[in-house]
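yo, DUF4262 domain-containing protein is done. seq:
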Amino acid sequence: MTDETPCHCLICVDHGIELDDFDRRTISVVRAHGWNALAIPADDSGPGWAYTIGLWHSFRSPEVAIFGIDDIETMQACLNILGEAVRAGDRLVEGAQRDDVIEDHPITLKPIHPSWYKSLFGMGLFFYRRPPLPFLEVVWPDSSMGVRQPQLWIPKAEHPPGPWPDLP
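structure:
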C-alpha cells in the first residue's frame, strides 16, 4: 500500500521563501538520489550524528538517524545503506533489526519521539515544512547508551542526563 499523504516539502510546494546554497544543494541531492545524508559533526558540546532528508519525499519511508559513531562518513555510509535498501523496496519499520548496516554489529530501528525533532533535525523540519515527520533511530550495540547514542524513543524531558537533553 502506498502512502498517499501529500508532501509539503521544498520540492513539492513553492513556499515563497528564500533558499540559500545549502538548501539548494539539499534539494539537488534529494532530486538526484532520493535522499541526502546530512552530518552534524561532534564538537565540544557532544557527539556527532547524521540523518536523512528525502526518504519520506521520495519513497514515503521514515527518515533515519544515527548517533555516536566517531567518523561522520561512516554514519553517512550507514544511512546510505538504508536508503539504498528503501530504494530497492525494503520497508523501514519500528523494531526492524538488520545486520547489513554496520559490519559485525546488528542494528535495531526505534521510533524517535517528536520532542527531539527541533533539537536534532532542524534542516529536516525546514525541508518538509510540516511536522510531524516519521523518524527512526539506528540503534547499534554500545555500552555507553545514552551518552554517545541518545535514547530518542524516550521523550526529551524524560531522557537520562547527558549531552543529548541539553541540546536546545
